[in-house]
Amino acid sequence: MSNYILSTPRLRMRNFELEDADYMFQLNSDSDVIRYTGDEPFASVEEARSFIQNYDRYTKYGYGRWTVIHAETLNYIGWCGLNYNENNEETDLGFRLLKKTWGHGYATEAASACLNYGFSQLGLKKVVGRALIENTASIRVLTKLGMMFEKKFEAHGSVAHQYFIRTKNDETN
Predict the structure, then answer these.
(1) Among 140, 136, 135, 143, which Cα is nearest to 163's?
(2) pLDDT for residue 157
(3) Is 57 in contact with 65 (CB distance < 8 Å)?
(4) Which pLDDT value is given to residue 155?
(5) What pLDDT does residue 169 have?
(6) Most distant CA pair in the chain: distance in Å?
(7) Is 28 exposed, middle or buried (0-12, 13-18, 19+ CB in 10 A)?
């Protein structure tokens, strides 16, 4: 049995495991799923496996992206989690789900659990979320979470927006 880091009424989240490689390959092979990410699809399941083996965020920062599993069926849904960006010293929230699971509120549910964990367990003060302006579904999730617009920037040749949320205990602006 896997060691779940987070649980919600419908979802369980855990560190990436090698058994996720087939699912991650499938997830990143769907052009609709990666349309707004700037990511290239994995070339093979082996490349996805290598990504998992080399994913060092859990040991380096104590958190990262997590595999999302449906609590009842134990089916793979995708991933969601927090990522520390060394370049700008920010933690961002990200999520990517299989297309067949879209429209059920899973992204919002998983992302909300990650934010709560980040603020209450990790002591984060601020988390950002980024999305290309064409990615209205992701923007809708970020705003449902209470994130507010912070700035516009260029990413992957398109205009993107950055949103943010602070812990309720943070006194800074």
Answers:
(1) 143
(2) 86
(3) yes
(4) 87
(5) 64
(6) 47
(7) buried
**Tokens representing 156?**
């992957």
- The strand pair at 65-70 and 11-14 is best described as antiparallel
* Strands across the sheet containing 158-166: 4-7, 11-14, 65-70, 76-85, 90-97, 126-132, 158-166, 148-155
With a cut of 50, which residues of the chain have pLDDT below it?
1, 173
- Residue whose entry in the numeric block shows the structure tokens 């988390």: 127
Alpha carbon 10 to chain centroid, angstroms? 17
Burial pattern 105-143, b for ≥16 Cβ within 10 A else e, equals: ebbbbbbbbbbebbbeeeebeebbbbbbeebeebbebbe
Q: Would you say 145 and 108 are in contact if contact means Cβ atoms under 8 Å apart?
A: yes
Smallest CA-to-CA distance from 166 within 65, 96, 57, 91 is with 91
Count CB atoms within 10 A of the CB of residue 166: 17
The predicted pLDDT at position 1 comes to: 44
Determine the pLDDT at residue 136: 95
